[in-house]
């Protein structure tokens, strides 16, 4: 019986995808739910599992083809179930010879996150581990996730080495035996398996690696495989191409198709350092560019005299910290002022969903924070109903978790408006980029003493430039300017916040 493999549902508003990689070829045995291929859409990567056990018959949509929802991808000749046993590998020989084994699986990564990259292993094969001891760290598009050991014992096998991209249900490692020493440790990785080789031999390289080698025009001998038994992976090909490009630059020839850069003098090339972008940095780059490509972004500017806020803060900061246990900063004033202005100009707190405008009757305030690994935006939920002290505590706690890389996915989702304080780095003026699908972001800048004309006299005042970037598709110029003026008025006379004026 022939079974059809079709494109699954790709998600709301997604109508087509590109076939990125086939993991099986005609004639291969497949097990039910075994991954056959990978599709790429403009939003996510989708894996296509086998609907039945059997033998791969025909691939209808080749790698690189664009297919619609429910399009035919391949056919499978249904077997009698033997394929299931053949397709799934036996228990790893790297596990300890006695005792129970426990699989270490990828933990929950968060809503809409389907894959992660193994960034660091803290343990090696053969090491003893305690329950809940950190084994490795995964890096997703947004956060780093630490993986604790589910049991005490010996790390018998690492199935996903550093640099491997894993899906949300993948196995990372195997823990064998018990912590009481009843089980002999497994051999160290250097002893248990031969070092990766650059030769193909009988090892089947990853289909994506074969495709990448063909596109780059390099041979298998130029690629050092780091996969199981020396299997070449796509990342291995990328490293080989980069190494070839560096060698070509160092020897002086012009750039080739595999290294489309201008020729680099040998002395300059020797001083360069090539570092792979982290997934977080790649995501930041993609989201910021997508924001520019999607929204009709415009920025309006104003300036605010921070004298009243600074005087009020200086007057009450000691009492505030003594009572609430947190310092009184400027962010709570700006948060309050923005929440006040958003009530009057609700479109700045709204978002576009298709042909509809979604107005939010609440304010989930995103507060952009710089971290050693990149920019993140934790969200202060229901900021419009919080006191100054509650806002300051929430910002301090989120900022600390952001710097430590401990933010969860949930803490960075659902924001309706964002504050970005470039002033802490000395920025005098900038145009912040929207954080989609939000329609507004307020840029704060450095407080600087400047001469101002007040009542016919020139006086020195502590001034700050404000910048509101907004999506002109939903926010008109009048609304944007009105919002910024209301923020300015509330900061220059904080009593207006108490009077709701």
From TrEMBL:
Keyword tags: Acyltransferase, Lipoyl, Transferase, Tricarboxylic acid cycle
EC number: 2.3.1.61
CDD domains reported for this sequence: lipoyl_domain
Signal peptide segment: none
Segments for region (Disordered): 185-230, 249-271
Role according to the record: E2 component of the 2-oxoglutarate dehydrogenase (OGDH) complex which catalyzes the second step in the conversion of 2-oxoglutarate to succinyl-CoA and CO(2).
Designated name of the protein: Dihydrolipoyllysine-residue succinyltransferase component of 2-oxoglutarate dehydrogenase complex
Lineage: Bacteria, Pseudomonadati, Pseudomonadota, Alphaproteobacteria, Rhodobacterales
Gene name as annotated: odhB
């Amino acid at each position: 019986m022939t079974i059809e493999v079709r494109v699954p549902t790709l998600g709301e508003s997604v109508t087509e995808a590109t076939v990125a990689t086939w993991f099986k070829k005609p004639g291969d045995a497949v097990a039910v739910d075994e991954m056959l291929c990978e599709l790429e859409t403009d939003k996510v990567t989708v894996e296509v599992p086998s609907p039945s056990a059997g033998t791969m018959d025909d691939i209808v949509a080749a790698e690189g083809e664009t297919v619609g929802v429910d399009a035919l991808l391949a056919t499978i000749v249904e077997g009698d179930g033997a394929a299931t046993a053949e397709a799934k590998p036996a228990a790893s020989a790297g596990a300890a010879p006695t005792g129970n084994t426990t699989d270490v699986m990828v933990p929950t990564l968060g809503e809409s996150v389907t894959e992660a990259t193994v960034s660091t292993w803290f343990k090696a094969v053969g090491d003893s581990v305690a329950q809940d001891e950190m084994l490795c760290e995964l890096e997703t598009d947004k956060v780093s996730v630490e993986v604790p050991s589910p049991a005490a014992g010996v790390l018998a096998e690492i199935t996903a080495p550093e640099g491997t991209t894993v899906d949300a249900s993948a196995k990372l490692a195997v823990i064998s035996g018990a912590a009481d020493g009843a089980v002999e440790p497994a051999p160290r990785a250097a002893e248990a398996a031969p070092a990766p080789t650059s030769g193909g031999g009988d090892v089947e390289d990853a289909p994506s690696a074969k495709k990448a080698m063909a596109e780059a025009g390099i041979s298998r001998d130029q690629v050092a495989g780091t996969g199981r038994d020396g299997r070449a992976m796509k990342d291995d090909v990328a490293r080989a191409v980069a190494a070839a490009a560096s060698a070509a630059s160092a020897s002086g020839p012009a750039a080739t198709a595999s290294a489309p850069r201008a020729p680099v003098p040998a002395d300059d090339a020797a001083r360069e350092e090539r570092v792979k972008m982290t997934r977080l940095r790649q995501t930041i780059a993609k989201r910021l560019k997508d924001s520019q490509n999607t929204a009709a972004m415009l920025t309006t500017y104003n300036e605010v005299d921070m004298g009243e806020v600074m005087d009020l803060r200086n007057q009450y900061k000691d009492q505030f910290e003594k009572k609430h246990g947190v310092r009184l900063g400027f962010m709570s004033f700006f948060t309050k002022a923005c929440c006040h202005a958003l009530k009057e100009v609700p479109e700045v707190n709204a978002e576009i969903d298709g042909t509809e405008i979604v107005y939010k009757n609440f304010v989930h305030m995103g507060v952009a924070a710089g971290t050693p690994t990149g920019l993140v935006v934790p969200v202060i939920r229901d900021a419009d109903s919080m006191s100054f002290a509650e806002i300051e505590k929430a910002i301090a706690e989120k900022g600390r978790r952001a710097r430590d890389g401990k933010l969860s996915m949930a803490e960075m989702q659902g924001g309706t408006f964002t504050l970005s304080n470039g002033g802490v780095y000395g920025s005098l003026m900038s145009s912040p980029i929207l954080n989609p699908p939000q329609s507004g972001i307020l840029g704060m800048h450095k407080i600087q003493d400047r001469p101002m004309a007040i009542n016919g006299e020139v006086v020195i005042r502590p001034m700050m430039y404000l910048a509101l970037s907004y999506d002109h598709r939903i926010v008109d110029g009048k609304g944007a300017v009105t919002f910024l003026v209301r923020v300015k008025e509330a900061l220059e006379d904080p009593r207006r916040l108490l009077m709701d004026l």
